[in-house]
Amino acid sequence: LRRHVLKARKLEAVEQMAAAISHEIRNPLTSAIGFIQLLREGSIDKEKENQYLSIIKTELKSAERVIQDYFTFSSPNTNITETISIEKVLQEVLDSYHLMSSLQSIQIKTNFLNTLRVVGDEQRLHQCLVNIIKNAIEAMNSGGILTVETESVGEKVFIRIKDTGIGMNQEQIDRLGEPYYSTKGDMGTGLGLMVSYSIVRAMGGTIHVESKEGAGTCFHLTLPGVKVHG
Ligand code: ADP
Ligand code: MG
């Protein structure tokens, strides 16, 4: 049984998320600094020292994950509008996950048929696609196929990012894009898709998710396209 959900969630603009996210980064950093101060006080036995060091490492990793999901782009407050080749950005993202994918026995297939460009901030679009593709790879721990396709119909660009991973049930699909919703415990932030949905919405596009537990997931992105000149 296939499940379809059209996402029309009202989300804050990317700019308005900055405050919440910086809070998410500041918390683990403050904690790490606290433990470093404890270490510097000396007279701590080896066991406690190791314990503190591992907490520091965990906190720093957690801050790093938030940054990975949100801050690939350097300028969250500017509104750059460029004419972007979706295929170029998708290829860059796939190239950066090439090693990780092959280590996880994931085969990557692409079929780029779109002839239009999209308008927006390329770094943000890159971040948006990273977050969706990273989830697809993470859903295929024991291998699978990642299929990335583009196509244009009329003035619209269609992007499909499909995995053969663990899939989701209806309740999970309905919660996608909700801040801090994650099923990955300490390994997740629950911020990745919130960021992706905001970016697509800001570009005037939509995301539609199809998924089946144990079979896989397909993210369908639709963006307004423009003709290439020259
Ligand atoms: P995170 O990856 O940090 O958990 P995200 O916002 O990126 O946060 O994703 C939220 C949740 O959506 C994930 O924890 C997972 O449960 C679910 N999810 C997203 N993409 C997929 C996918 N391709 N396959 C299965 N589950 C997914
Ligand atoms: Mg994620």
TrEMBL record:
EC number(s) given by UniProt: 2.7.13.3
Q: Print the keywords alphabetically.
A: ATP-binding, Kinase, Membrane, Nucleotide-binding, Phosphoprotein, Transferase, Transmembrane, Transmembrane helix, Two-component regulatory system
Q: Which GO terms describe its molecular function?
A: ATP binding
Q: Does the keyword Membrane apply?
A: yes
What this protein catalyses is: ATP + protein L-histidine = ADP + protein N-phospho-L-histidine
Which enzyme class? Answer: transferase
Question: In its UniProt entry, what is this protein called?
Answer: histidine kinase
Q: Which organism is it from?
A: Lederbergia graminis
* Top-level taxonomy: Bacteria, Bacillati, Bacillota, Bacilli, Bacillales
Full-sequence portion shown in this chain? 187 to 416 of 416
